[in-house]
C-alpha cells in the first residue's frame, strides 16, 4: 500500500516519494489521499500538507502557497507556487 | 613598417584584452553551470503543469464557456510579440539572432495583414527592434535590476500581459525566446502564449475526474499560472543561453587574441633582428673603411 506523492514548485521538484497518506489543504476543505483514490483535482489554499509515511507514524508538515493538487492513477501531484520547508 | 615601440605597445594591448576575455569566459562557464541546473530543476513543474492542463483543457476546449485566456478574444487581428532578450552583451550572435527571428515573425504577420506590436523583455532587443518598428513597441520590461531573474519577475511579466489582454490591447501573444540546446547552439523559438493553445495530447483515458471547486474555476486559476510558468521557463532558458553564448564568444575572442599576439610577436622579432643586422652592417662597414 503506497501512494506515489510528488510535490513540485516552479524552481524544483521538492519531493517524490512513496508514502502512506497525504492530507492536502484543499480550497474547499482538507482532504486525505490514500492509494487508489478516485481521480480528483482541486485548487489548494495556503496551508500545510501533512505527509504520513507510515500508517501510524507522525505526519511531516510542509507549508505551501498557491497551487493545486491532482490525483490520478499514477498518484498525487501537488503543484505549489511557493514551498517553505 | 611600424616601429618596435609601436609593436610592443600593440602586443601589450592585445594581451590585456585577452586577459579580459579569458576572465569573462571563466565567469560565464561558472554561471552557465548554475543556470543549467536551474533550468533543469524547473522542468518537472512545467511538465506536470502541462499534463494537468492537457487533461483539463481537453474537457473544456471547444465549449463556449471556456475561460477567455483559452478561448481568445474571438479575433486574431492584433498580435503581440513578447521578445525575451538578454540585458548584457558580449554573448556573440544570441541577441541578433533573437531580433532576427522576431522581425521575421513580425514581417510574416504584417504581410498577412495583422497589426503587430512588441513587448520587450531585457535591454538588448530594444535598439534594433526600435530601428525597424519605431512606433510598435508597446511595453518594456526591465530585468536588469535583479541579478538572476526568477519566478517573481515571471509573475510580474505575466500579470502585466494578462492585464493588457483583459484590457483588450491585443488578441494573440507570441513568445520569442532562445532555447538552450548546448553551449554552442541556442535557437530562437516562437510559441503562442495567449490564448493558451489547446494541448495536442488527446484527453486521457476518460476516467471520471472530480473537480473541486469546478472545472472552470480550476482552469481559471490554472491558465495564468501556465502563462507564468512559460515565461519563467523562457527566462531560465535565456539565462542559460546567455551564459553559453557568452562562454563561446569569449573563447573565440581569447583564441583570436592569442593568434594576434603570436603574429605581432613574430613581426616584432623580425624587425628587431633587421635593426640589429643593419646596425652590424654599419659597424662593419665603418671598421672596414678605416
Describe the structure.
The complex is a heterodimer of chains A (85) and B (290). Chain A is built from no helices and eight strands. With 85 residues, chain A is mainly β. Chain A has one domain: F0F1 ATP synthase delta/epsilon subunit, N-terminal (ATP Synthase, domain 1, Sandwich). In chain B, 61% of the residues lie in helices and 14% in strands. In chain B, strand 1, helix 3 (94-111) and strand 2 (115-121) form a beta-alpha-beta unit. In chain B, helix 1 runs antiparallel to helix 6. The model of chain B has no long low-confidence stretch (mean pLDDT 87). At the A-B interface, strand 5, strand 7 and strand 8 of A face helix 1, strand 6 and helix 6 of B.
Features:
heterodimer, A: about 80 residues, mainly beta, ATP Synthase, domain 1, 8-stranded mixed beta sheet, 8 strands, B: about 290 residues, alpha/beta, Helix Hairpins, Pyruvate Kinase, Chain: A, domain 1, 5-stranded mixed beta sheet, 6 helices, about 15% strand, elongated
Amino acid at each position: 500500500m503506497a501512494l506515489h506523492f510528488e510535490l513540485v514548485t516552479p524552481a524544483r521538484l521538492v519531493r517524490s516519494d512513496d508514502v502512506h497518506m497525504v492530507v492536502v489543504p484543499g480550497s474547499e476543505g482538507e482532504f486525505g489521499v490514500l492509494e487508489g483514490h478516485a481521480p480528483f483535482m482541486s485548487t489548494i489554499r495556503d496551508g500545510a500538507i501533512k505527509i504520513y509515511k507510515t500508517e501510524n507514524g507522525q505526519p511531516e508538515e510542509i507549508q505551501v502557497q498557491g497551487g493545486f493538487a491532482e490525483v490520478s492513477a499514477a498518484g498525487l501531484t501537488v503543484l505549489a507556487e511557493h514551498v517553505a520547508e | 613598417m611600424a616601429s618596435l615601440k609601436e609593436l610592443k605597445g600593440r602586443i601589450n594591448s592585445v594581451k590585456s584584452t585577452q586577459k579580459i576575455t579569458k576572465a569573462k569566459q571563466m565567469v560565464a562557464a561558472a554561471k552557465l553551470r548554475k543556470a543549467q541546473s536551474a533550468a533543469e530543476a524547473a522542468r518537472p513543474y512545467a511538465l506536470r503543469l502541462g499534463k494537468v492542463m492537457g487533461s483539463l483543457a481537453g474537457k473544456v476546449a471547444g465549449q463556449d464557456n471556456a475561460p477567455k485566456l483559452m478561448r481568445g478574444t474571438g479575433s486574431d487581428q492584433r498580435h503581440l510579440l513578447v521578445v525575451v532578450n538578454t540585458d548584457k552583451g558580449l554573448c556573440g550572435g544570441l541577441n541578433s539572432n533573437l531580433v532576427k527571428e522576431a522581425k521575421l515573425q513580425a514581417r510574416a504577420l504584417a504581410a498577412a495583414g495583422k497589426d503587430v506590436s512588441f513587448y520587450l523583455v531585457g535591454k538588448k532587443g530594444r535598439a534594433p527592434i526600435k530601428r525597424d518598428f519605431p512606433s510598435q513597441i508597446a511595453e518594456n520590461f526591465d530585468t536588469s535590476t535583479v541579478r538572476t531573474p526568477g519566478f517573481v519577475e515571471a509573475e510580474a511579466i505575466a500579470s502585466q500581459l494578462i492585464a493588457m489582454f483583459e484590457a483588450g490591447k491585443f488578441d494573440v501573444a507570441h513568445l520569442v525566446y532562445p532555447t538552450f540546446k548546448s553551449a554552442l547552439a541556442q535557437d530562437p523559438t516562437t510559441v503562442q502564449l495567449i490564448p493558451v493553445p489547446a494541448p495536442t495530447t488527446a484527453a486521457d483515458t476518460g476516467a471520471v475526474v472530480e473537480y473541486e471547486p469546478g472545472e472552470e474555476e480550476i482552469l481559471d486559476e490554472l491558465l495564468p499560472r501556465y502563462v507564468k510558468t512559460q515565461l519563467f521557463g523562457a527566462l531560465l532558458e535565456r539565462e542559460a543561453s546567455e551564459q553559453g553564448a557568452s562562454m563561446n564568444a569569449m573563447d573565440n575572442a581569447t583564441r583570436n587574441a592569442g593568434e594576434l599576439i603570436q603574429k605581432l610577436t613574430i613581426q616584432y622579432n623580425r624587425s628587431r633582428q633587421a635593426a640589429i643586422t643593419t646596425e652590424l652592417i654599419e659597424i662593419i662597414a665603418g671598421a672596414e673603411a678605416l
